[in-house]
């Protein structure tokens, strides 16, 4: 087992807050130093927003846990300053294969088009993801950015007030109180913060269990996602195989509902299952084992006064589709820039309600897709199983059946259709880059379009002259005019369609806010006001 589990990355140390005569007020307090909490801290600190992260642990998570990080998450990591580390260590993959019994029925490519900086997915153990995020925080601290991680600090109680939250923190040297203008709960699926505020999930718990095993072995399986329906080594169930760094392989085996979880996790029961799958000649070591139950649930509302929930504390989905951690990073992407503007008095507090609308919409989409995957993987009736098996048989030779096969619809970024922040959308431009959609990457000279957007409002003129700087309501919008020589076929297909020119306004989370055929300063001002919650429909 990796020694990384044993190293305290943010060990407990005494804080001046513990000796203060009255609770010290902080602009932002984050509960949870998992991937989502750490990413949130980085996003805020990069914008000079003071932030304190509290966690009762001092180390990375044990076991690989979340391993599949999507292209959109990698683009967010790039914006947070740690994308290269993740991709360099991770196992890159774009191809998935589906098997029925002992035969392959088809394969698919998750990124079939050229012109993207990042791959469809990387596989990387969660503990490495956490390590690189902590290292990024340390680098920001060295630059003088206002971010602090307090390990060994367990949040014991919350009191939500109109203008702050009172946080009671317990340590081995005693308890202390602090106040947070804004508290962000990133404390996982079991969220103590959620329980402290007497809040709960709504949704479905599916009657099925899956065994997760991290196996260290030398194997010649290709770097692909392999999913089996009814394999010979796990009859009437399913299985999943992923390659990770350091010779570690993730194996998921469906167990069924009525199992003794404690017994199933014992090595003497796990090893024979793996031996049946891998064969008698493959040498392997068991690194980590866990059992999970399919759950597709979320909080009814992600914002509760001065407390905002993100990541697994706000929503849960079954793991097939890699929609858990990836949606958590999109929560970060959506919330941080809005909170920054509110704290700087450049946007109304109601802007944070749009975080609820947009990310609750995304959670519903993830839950819908995850529930459909679960129902296909684990049929609830004999008729459902007959239908599923017929679809799998047909998909081997008939392409029309392949879209019906659902071994997990893999994570894609949310499009915020219907958001009150969306501005004008002039017709005849490509639907995939409409307002509410995330930027789609494309080559831009010797760089990449998504990298050029950063974490600020950006106005891009494709074949149209736009101002280099626009100041609207005290917020600076950076403009860039792209001449025809920089507009390659990828940009034309993704942003122009049949038109020769267009203007796009991007939000700091790199989602499209509005777009037009030509630049108009008045239209820009109207769209910007909407994007920060000051438009007529957002008042």
* Overall geometry: globular
The secondary structure category is: alpha+beta
Mean of residue pLDDT values: 93
Q: How is the biggest beta sheet arranged?
A: 8 strands, mixed
Q: Which percent range fits the helix content? A: 25-40%
Number of helices: 13
Number of strands: 26
Through-space gap between termini: 54 Å
Gyration radius, in Å:
24 Å
Strand content: 25-35%
Unreliable stretches covering 5 or more consecutive residues: none
Describe the structure.
With 539 residues, the protein is an alpha+beta fold. Helices cover 28% and strands 28% of the residues. The chain has helices spanning 35-46, 71-80, 83-89, 126-142, 192-196, 261-264, 267-278, 324-343, 351-377, 382-395, 449-453, 489-496, 521-531; strands spanning 24-31, 51-54, 68-70, 91-93, 95-100, 103-109, 121-123, 147-150, 154-160, 165-171, 174-185, 201-217, 225-229, 238-243, 248-254, 284-299, 303-304, 307-309, 315-316, 443-444, 447-448, 458-462, 469-472, 475-482, 502-506, 512-516. Strands 1, 2, 8, 9, 10, 11, 17 and 18 form an eight-stranded mixed beta sheet that branches. Strand 5 and strand 6 form a beta hairpin. It is globular and about 70 Å long. The protein starts with 23 loop residues before the first strand and ends in an 8-residue tail after the last helix.
Entry summary:
This protein has 539 residues and is an alpha+beta fold. It has 13 helices and 26 strands.
List the helices and strands and how they pair.
Blueprint: E1 24-31, H1 35-46, E2 51-54, E3 68-70, H2 71-80, H3 83-89, E4 91-93, E5 95-100, E6 103-109, E7 121-123, H4 126-142, E8 147-150, E9 154-160, E10 165-171, E11 174-185, H5 192-196, E12 201-217, E13 225-229, E14 238-243, E15 248-254, H6 261-264, H7 267-278, E16 284-299, E17 303-304, E18 307-309, E19 315-316, H8 324-343, H9 351-377, H10 382-395, E20 443-444, E21 447-448, H11 449-453, E22 458-462, E23 469-472, E24 475-482, H12 489-496, E25 502-506, E26 512-516, H13 521-531
Parallel strand pairs: 1-2, 1-11, 2-8, 5-13, 11-18, 22-24
Antiparallel strand pairs: 3-7, 4-7, 5-6, 9-10, 10-11, 12-15, 12-16, 13-14, 14-15, 16-19, 17-18, 20-21, 22-25, 23-24, 25-26
Helix pairs in contact: 1-4, 1-8, 2-3, 8-9
């Amino acid at each position: 087992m990796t020694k990384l589990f044993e190293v305290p990355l943010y060990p407990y140390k005494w804080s001046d807050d513990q000796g203060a005569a009255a609770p010290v007020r902080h602009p932002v307090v984050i509960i949870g130093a998992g991937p989502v909490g750490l990413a949130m801290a980085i996003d805020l600190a990069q914008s000079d927003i003071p932030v304190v992260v509290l966690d009762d642990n001092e180390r990375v998570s044990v076991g690989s846990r979340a391993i599949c990080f999507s292209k959109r998450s990698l683009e967010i990591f790039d914006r947070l300053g740690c994308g290269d580390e993740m991709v360099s260590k991770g196992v890159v993959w774009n191809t998935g294969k589906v098997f029925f019994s002992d035969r392959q029925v088809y394969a698919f490519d998750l990124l079939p088009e050229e012109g993207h900086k990042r791959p469809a997915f990387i596989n990387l153990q969660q503990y490495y993801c956490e390590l690189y995020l902590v290292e990024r925080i340390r680098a920001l601290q060295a630059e003088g950015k206002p971010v602090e991680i307090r390990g060994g600090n367990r949040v014991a109680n919350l009191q939500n007030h109109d203008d702050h939250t009172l946080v009671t923190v317990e340590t081995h040297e005693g308890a202390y109180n602090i106040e947070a203008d804004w508290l962000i709960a990133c404390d996982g699926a079991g969220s103590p913060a959620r329980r402290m505020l007497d809040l709960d999930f709504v949704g479905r718990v599916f009657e099925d269990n899956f065994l997760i095993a991290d196996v260290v072995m030398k194997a010649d399986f290709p770097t692909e996602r392999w999913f089996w329906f009814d394999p010979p080594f796990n009859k009437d169930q399913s299985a999943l195989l992923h390659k990770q760094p350091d010779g570690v392989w993730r194996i998921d085996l469906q167990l069924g509902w009525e199992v003794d979880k404690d017994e199933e996790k014992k090595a003497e029961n796990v090893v024979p299952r793996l031996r049946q799958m891998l064969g008698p000649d493959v040498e392997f070591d068991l690194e980590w084992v866990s059992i999970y139950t399919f759950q597709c649930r979320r909080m009814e509302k992600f914002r509760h006064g001065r407390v905002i929930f993100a990541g697994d504390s706000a929503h849960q989905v079954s793991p097939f589709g890699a929609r858990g951690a990836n949606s958590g990073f999109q929560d970060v992407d959506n919330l941080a820039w809005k909170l920054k503007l509110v704290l700087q008095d450049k946007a109304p507090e109601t802007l944070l309600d749009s975080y609820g609308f947009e990310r609750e919409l995304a959670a519903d989409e993830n839950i819908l897709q995850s529930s459909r995957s679960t129902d296909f993987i684990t049929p609830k009736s004999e008729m459902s199983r007959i239908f599923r098996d017929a679809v799998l048989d047909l998909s081997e030779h008939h392409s029309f059946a392949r879209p019906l096969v659902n071994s997990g619809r893999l994570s894609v970024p949310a499009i915020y259709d219907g958001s009150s922040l969306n501005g004008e959308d002039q017709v005849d431009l490509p639907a995939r880059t409409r307002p509410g959609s995330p930027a789609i990457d494309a080559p831009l000279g010797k760089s990449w379009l998504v990298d050029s957007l950063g974490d600020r409002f950006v106005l891009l003129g494709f074949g149209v002259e736009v101002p280099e700087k626009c100041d609207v309501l005290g917020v600076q919008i950076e403009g860039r005019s792209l001449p025809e020589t920089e507009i390659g076929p990828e940009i034309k297909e993704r942003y122009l369609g049949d038109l020769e020119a267009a203007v796009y306004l991007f939000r700091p989370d790199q989602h499209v806010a509005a777009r037009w055929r030509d630049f108009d300063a008045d239209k820009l001002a109207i769209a910007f006001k909407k994007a920060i919650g000051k438009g007529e429909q957002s008042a």
